Amino acid sequence: MKILTADQLSEADKITIQKQGITSEELMERAATLVFEEIHKRLEGAPIPIKIFCGIGNNGGDGLVVARHLIQHKYDVQVFIVNYSDKRSDDFLANYEKLKKITRNWPISIKGEDDFPEIGTGDFVIDAIFGIGLNRPIESWMGKLVKTINKSGAFVLAVDMPSGLFSDRVPEKDAAVINASYTLSFQTPKLVFYLPQTMDYAGEVEILDIGLDRQCISESKSGIFLIEDEEARMFYKERKKNSHKGDYGNVLISGGSYGKIGSVLLSATAALRTGTGLCTLYVPKCGYQIIQSGLPEAMVLTDENEEIITNFPEGFGADVNCFGMGVGKAKQTVEAMEKFLRSVEKPVVIDADGLNILSKNNELLKLIPENSVLTPHPGELKRLIGEWKDDFEKLEKTKEFSKEYKVTLLIKGAHTFIISDDEIYINSTGNPGMATAGSGDVLSGVITSLIGQKYNPVTAAVLGVYAHGLSGDIAASKLGMESVLAGDIAKNMGKAFKLISEDFSGYEAESQ
Ligand SMILES: NC(=O)C1=CN([C@@H]2O[C@H](COP(=O)(O)OP(=O)(O)OC[C@H]3O[C@@H](n4cnc5c(N)ncnc54)[C@H](O)[C@@H]3O)[C@@H](O)[C@H]2O)[C@@H](O)CC1
Ligand SMILES: Nc1ncnc2c1ncn2[C@@H]1O[C@H](COP(=O)(O)OP(=O)(O)O)[C@@H](O)[C@H]1O
Ligand SMILES: [K+]
Fold first, then answer.
1. Spans of the chain, pLDDT less than 50
2. What is the torsion angle, in degrees rounded to the nearest 10, for the CA atoms of residue 430, residue 195, residue 206 and residue 5?
3. Which ligand has the shortest distance to the CA of 208?
4. 415 marked as part of a ligand binding site
5. Which of 15, 19, 95, 339 could form a disulfide with 64 if both were Cys (CB 3.0 to 4.6 A apart)?
6. What is the dihedral of CA 189, 191, 196, 199, to 10 degrees?
7. CB atoms within 10 A of CB 469
């Protein structure tokens, strides 16, 4: 799903109104009615005290529409108008009049701290103060109101955006921003719902399709995409009946050192569980027994050194190479990495210590084959591209690096970002159970495997990250998050692809 900016969305609102021949008030009614329906579906008429805080722009107008429907469905509703100026929007005013006609319990105006209501843990708060129209931080008594709502312990549902959160920048420290439990947002996701510095404000996010003009949305230029099941299905290639192991890639994974052989074992297991035809590992001698008994399906080549990698097997002719997990940073290993980079021409996958070696030996960067995939977590990324001021600058710097070296980079995290040139893909799968040693090694194995199966490297990275997260979700649903081991993510890769592919065949069957 495309991610658009606030300006693009406002433009889409205008075009929709024109093309569909509706008024902006009708569009507001449509959007806010969807919000009401979501709430009604969950509350099922429960007599919970609902407190709706409305601004005086169109986000506030949405709040008034939601209030009207809730009251008409006999909910216990009190509306508060956050009355910070006299400039009310036309659609706010129209809905204010409509609300007054259906209830005697008129909205209460808040003009300062003295007017703040009591808000308790049992309340259901709807935040309709500011939406995408926010153009400066929330200050004075309004800021205090936001902080009071946050402290109340009430369940907070934000309409479109948590108030105080900008769609294109990180709030200042101590800024007043609603900490929503849930955000119902209109038409497209907003980038700030997924960045580590801002994602917590939005809580759980659901996107409501308010029927904005499809052509306008599809023509809007955006380089940012949220990857969900629909996109994963589009990328997935089914295995052909008439195929053999040579069709699914001959991969070589090089890494490991004394005490860290498990890392390569995990990557190789993941590669094979992702469908690799032939998988060979290149490890120090001490890894031989471990791999042969731990993963008999893999072949093993060993370095002449017992404990570290000091060389790289030239002329092996793998379809794709992966280098770095558990490899350490010894001088001879750096030399082996240089030999590796000089001897390979096709895109490679570089992970973990492979990335740390690159950070310390910048002259190696220009040896990386074009279209390679680098898989840093934020710590490794920082070593590679330097410090950043905030998440927006991090994205810009990562894009620059991607363009300079013509590589795809991951920024791993709760939402992993995949960055290639000017494009950003954001993953939607995964769970905190995956914050466990070795899950990154599994991911490199998955991406390497997909490149070996002839997915282009960007698609391999995007689909690989999605399937890896889905596998983590399957593992967590069976084991509980605390018990997920990286090996469980590898083990469930097949089930993840089955989910992706079964939906696909279901879709095909339906359309026949
Ligand atoms: N335009 C449309 O047709 C639709 C708009 N919708 C709603 O409209 C919202 C956008 O509405 P608006 O553009 O009216 O903007 P908001 O309701 O977000 O904000 C209202 C106005 O407050 C002022 N403002 C911004 N930051 C402020 C601050 N910190 N302190 C004091 N004043 C501040 C701005 O002038 C802004 O226009 C969306 O988020 C969505 O909820 C929906 O109803 C869908 C349809
Ligand atoms: N809270 C989380 N939610 C979803 N995925 C997560 C979370 N924490 C970690 N992950 C995923 O787990 C993996 C961790 O990778 P990494 O930090 O390299 O681990 P390691 O080095 O131990 O293998 C990444 O794919 C990351 O996206
Ligand atoms: K809001």
1. 504-512
2. -140
3. 1
4. yes
5. 95
6. -40
7. 25
Ligand nearest to the CA of 64: 1
The tokens for 433 are: 């159970």
Closest C-alpha to ligand 1, atom 42: 28
HEC sequence for 207-275: EECCCCCHHHHHHCCCCEEEECHHHHHHHCCCCCCCCCHHHHCEEEEECCCCCCHHHHHHHHHHHHHCC
Q: Which two tokens stand for residue 492?
A: 């469930």
pTM: 0.95
Q: Residue ranges of the domains in the chain?
A: 6-222, 233-511
pLDDT digits (tens, 9 = 90+) for 42-96: 999 999 999 999 999 999 999 999 999 999 999 999 999 999 999 999 999 999 9
Query: What is the distance between the alpha carbons of residues 9 and 370, in angstroms, rounded to a whole number?
Result: 35
CA of 129 to the centre of ligand 1 (A): 8
Q: What is residue 503's predicted lDDT score, i.e. its pLDDT?
A: 62
Q: Cα(295)–Cα(279) distance, rounded to whole angstroms?
A: 10
Ligand 1 centre to CA of 178 (Å) is 15
Distance, CA of 358 to CA of 64 (rounded, Å): 56
Distance 418 CA to ligand 2 centre (A): 14
Candidates 3.40.50.10260, 1.10.10.10, 3.40.50.720, 3.30.70.100; correct CATH number of 6-222?
Answer: 3.40.50.10260
Tokens 């009049």 correspond to: 97
Q: Is 8 helix (H, G, I), strand (E, B) or coil?
A: helix
CATH of domain 233-511: 3.40.1190.20
Question: What HEC string does 126-142 produce?
Answer: EEECCCCCCCCCCCHHH
CA of 327 to the centre of ligand 2 (A): 19
Cα(398)–Cα(89) distance, rounded to whole angstroms? 40
Q: Cα(first)–Cα(last) distance of the chain, in Å?
A: 26
**Using alpha carbons only, how large is the chain's radius of gyration in Å?**
26
Q: What is the pLDDT of residue 425?
A: 98
Q: Is the CB of 464 under 6 A from ligand 2?
A: no
CB neighbours of residue 360 within 10 Å? 10
What is the Å distance from ligand 3's center to 219 Cα?
Answer: 27
Amino acid at 103: T
Report the C-alpha gap between 43 and 24 in whole angstroms: 28
Residue nearest atom 39 in ligand 1 by C-alpha distance: 131
Pocket test for ligand 2, best of 204, 227, 412, 426 (most atoms within 8 A of CB): 412
468 annotated as belonging to a binding site for a ligand: no
| 155 neighbors 148 (Cβ within 8 angstroms) | no
